[in-house]
């Protein structure tokens, strides 16, 4: 599902990176410790914005949209490698002007936010918790104001704002009072220019969720388990712990599901949150959320992440038939 039409290929490679300066410094330090900076792509001109993929010409794109210099580099490129946190403007520029782009963020920008992800799950017939989406509080009341609200909702349910990740802006609603308070908060957000939320069926899952990370052709899974029964969230940022070994059959089922989803959508760099209901007879993996920028503790830390990413970038370059060598 191309986000934009692609133009003819040329004969060189550009590697593009737009991110914050502090993040760039961290990656550069990681590159030095892993000796990743010796990776060089063979071509007439190599332009790199990525601190872990150094080349003859390196341009900093931190805190800005791409400009004429970036456009010239991309137009002269045979492939473009973009950063995890790239802006829509950079992604669109790359797709307008180069045939090969990594990572594939078509779904990230075509199905933006949690509302967009819910629509994506529905359009692809992907198993996920029952979800109702609302672009605004007014839209919510237009649908439910005339209904007896006690009959409209089954509590507990999950309230999510359209933005945020790793468990941020996600709340468990136990009653109509909780829902009213969440709607009041939504009104405040709308006044500041942020809108959209969804209501989702609460799936009891034993205070754990499975994270499945895809990096190129590599898939890694691990459980995130919260031992506090009062907490319904299982993100590491919320105090959960990592368990990479339990229930390997469920992990295999989730990876199989995510692989099929990625094959259909083209996603090749993301962290998927997957739920399994607590009932032993219900072992269907439910896709909960897609995180295009995700934590790395469960992967072994940032150094390990960049090591895997570097390897997968080279595999991708080999796969599209471009020469690649180490300096």
Automatic annotation (TrEMBL):
GO CC, alphabetical: cytoplasm
Domain of life of the native organism: Bacteria
Alphabetized GO MF terms: ATP binding; ligase activity, forming carbon-nitrogen bonds; metal ion binding
SUPFAM superfamilies: Glutathione synthetase ATP-binding domain-like
ATP-grasp domain mapped to chain residues: 118-322
ATP-binding among keywords: yes
A Pfam cross-reference name: RimK
Keyword Amino-acid biosynthesis set for record: no
UniProt keywords, alphabetically: ATP-binding, Nucleotide-binding
PANTHER family per UniProt: BETA-CITRYLGLUTAMATE SYNTHASE B-RELATED, RIBOSOMAL PROTEIN S6 MODIFICATION PROTEIN
Protein name (Swiss-Prot/TrEMBL): ATP-grasp domain-containing protein
Organism: Candidatus Desulfatibia profunda
């Amino acid at each position: 599902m191309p986000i934009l039409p692609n133009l003819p290929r040329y004969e060189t490679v550009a590697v593009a990176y737009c991110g914050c300066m502090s993040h760039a410094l961290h990656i550069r330090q990681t590159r030095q410790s892993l000796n990743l900076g010796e990776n060089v792509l063979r071509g007439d001109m190599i332009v790199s914005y990525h601190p872990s993929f150094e080349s003859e010409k390196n341009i900093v794109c931190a805190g800005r949209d791409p400009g004429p210099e970036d456009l010239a580099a991309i137009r002269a490129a045979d492939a473009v490698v973009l950063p995890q946190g790239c802006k829509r403007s950079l992604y669109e520029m790359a797709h307008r002007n180069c045939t090969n782009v990594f990572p594939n963020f078509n779904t990230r920008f075509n199905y933006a936010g949690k509302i967009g992800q819910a629509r994506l799950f529905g359009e692809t017939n992907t198993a996920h918790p029952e979800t109702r989406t609302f672009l605004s509080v007014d839209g919510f009341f237009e649908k439910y104001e005339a209904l007896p609200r006690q009959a409209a909702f089954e509590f507990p349910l999950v309230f999510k704002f359209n933005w945020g990740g790793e468990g941020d802006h996600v709340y468990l609603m136990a009653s109509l009072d909780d829902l009213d308070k969440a709607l009041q908060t939504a009104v405040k957000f709308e006044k500041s220019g942020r809108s959209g939320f969804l209501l989702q069926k609460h799936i009891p899952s034993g205070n754990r969720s499975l994270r499945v990370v895809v990096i190129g052709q590599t898939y890694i899974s691990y459980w995130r388990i919260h031992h506090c029964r009062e907490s319904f969230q299982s993100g590491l940022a919320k105090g959960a712990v990592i368990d990479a070994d339990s229930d390997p059959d469920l992990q295999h089922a989730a990876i199989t599901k995510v692989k099929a989803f990625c094959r259909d959508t083209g996603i090749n760099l993301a962290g998927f949150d997957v739920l399994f209901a607590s009932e032993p007879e219900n072992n269907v993996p439910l896709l909960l959320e897609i995180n295009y920028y995700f934590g790395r503790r469960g992967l072994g830390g940032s150094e390990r992440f960049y090591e895997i990413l570097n390897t997968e970038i080279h595999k991708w370059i080999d796969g599209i038939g471009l020469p690649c060598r180490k300096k």
